[in-house]
Design goal:
- By secondary structure, the protein is α+β, with helices and mostly antiparallel strands.
- Strands 1, 2, 3, 9, 10 and 11 form a six-stranded antiparallel β-sheet that branches. The chain has a three-stranded antiparallel β-sheet with strand order 6-7-8. The chain has a two-stranded antiparallel sheet with strand order 4-5.
- The chain contains 14 helices and eleven strands.
- Helix 4 packs antiparallel against helix 5 and helix 5 runs antiparallel to helix 6.
- Strand 7 and strand 8 form a beta hairpin.
Length: about 375
């Protein structure tokens, strides 16, 4: 493809539409996007290597710091992997409490994604209102785990803190308020003519492409693919809790937004079931688990953005030999050029927001090119 008629526009690595460092090199012909190339690596911190140099117990804290928004789901996935290697039994009450924190995290993450979508469309009041109504969920997380953001709640063998009847009543009352507010936001996103025109038929992704390129999470479900680790391979207490896997068929930015809204309501239902059926009993081991026998395990969970996978190898002792993390955002972002077909430059922020990118999570991989340069990129021409 000749580059003479194309103008290259850098979007990032610092940009108002990107709340984390990521670079998109965009080639445009007039207003039409002809080619887009994502570049990552700006936030790579070497966490996998740090996990290999620290103990199993310390790695719980490292896993939780892969991402602030996704910290509970990372520690859950890591702990499940360690438990599989060590044949560690998790008490029923702890499994339900893990589910509780994971779904609280899913709600506040989805509400953040929806608020950012409103901001990028130009609805700043919608952004501020959603961020305000997200605060009670963060307050619940703090009440249960002890911290709004870095919970450090899940550990191998169980969880660190229990809840009492007073906190359960607080959870129920807060969920009523959040559900009422989300009904209003659902109506806004479904009926506001500006929102529907900005999102409908923008960033289309066909169902066969989801499987071919490995898209996961709400992106896959918005294109009609019923995939959810909580349903396919239950962990924590999900195998004992009834819930629906939310899907839509449109496959566009609007569908991805509505899937997240519906998943908030589903998470609220899961939370209500969890606190109403919370088993009695211990919440974890009396002494923290410090050593694990030799072995290896793959664990996977349904993060807010899709399937999160940990591969852990132990040679016995108090340190892992290998910790490999595969996050949902990596596949979703590196294959995202598919969504920009027939898109205009003005659609770019909306399509990015519909992906709900978590750059902090995806910084796991570098590709060493033959010429010695180190970079990670995906190039996809959208020209016909």
């Amino acid at each position: 493809m000749s580059n003479s008629k194309y103008l290259e526009i850098p979007v990032g690595p610092q940009h108002p539409a990107l709340h984390e460092p990521l670079l998109f090199k965009v080639k445009v012909e007039g207003e039409r996007i002809a080619e887009i190339t994502p570049f990552t690596g700006y936030n790579h911190r070497g966490i996998e290597k740090l996990c290999e140099n620290n103990t199993f117990l310390k790695d719980v804290y490292l896993a939780g710091r892969v991402c602030g928004i996704c910290n509970v789901v990372h520690t859950t996935c890591y702990s499940e992997g360690v438990e599989r290697i060590g044949n560690i039994e998790v008490p029923s009450r702890a499994r339900y409490l893990r589910t509780l924190l994971n779904e609280l995290e899913r709600i506040h993450s989805h509400m953040l994604a929806l608020a950012v979508m409103g901001e990028l469309i130009g609805f700043h009041t919608l952004f501020m209102l959603m961020m305000r109504d997200r605060e009670p969920i963060l307050a619940l997380k703090e009440s249960v785990a002890g911290n709004r953001v870095q919970a450090d709640y899940v550990m191998p063998g169980g969880v660190r803190k229990d809840i009492d009847s007073e906190k359960i009543e607080k959870i129920k009352k807060t969920l009523e308020h959040v559900e009422e507010r989300m009904r209003y936001y659902e109506k806004v996103f479904k009926e506001d003519s500006i929102i529907t025109k900005r999102l409908s038929k923008v960033g289309k992704l066909d169902r066969p492409e989801v499987s071919k390129y490995g898209f996961v999470g709400p992106i896959a479900r918005a294109s009609g693919v019923k995939t959810d680790v909580r349903y396919e391979d239950p962990y924590a207490a999900y195998g004992e809790i009834p819930f629906n896997v939310i899907t839509r068929e449109e496959g566009d930015s609007w569908a991805r937004t509505l899937v997240r809204i519906s998943e908030v309501f589903e998470a609220i239902n899961i939370l209500r079931y969890t606190v109403d059926h919370l088993p009695d009993g211990p919440i974890g081991p009396k002494v923290p688990i410090r050593k694990v026998q030799a072995g290896e395990a793959i664990s996977r969970v349904e993060a807010q953005r899709g399937q999160l996978v940990y591969y852990i190898v132990s040679k016995g002792g108090d340190k892992p030999y290998r910790v490999k993390i595969r996050t949902p955002s990596f596949n979703n972002i590196m294959n995202s050029p598919l969504l920009f077909r027939d898109a205009n430059i003005g659609d770019l922020p909306v399509i990015l927001a519909s992906l709900d990118p978590c750059i902090s999570c995806m910084e796991r991989l570098v590709v060493i090119q033959k010429d010695g340069l180190i970079e990670t990129k995906t190039v996809m021409s959208l020209a016909r």
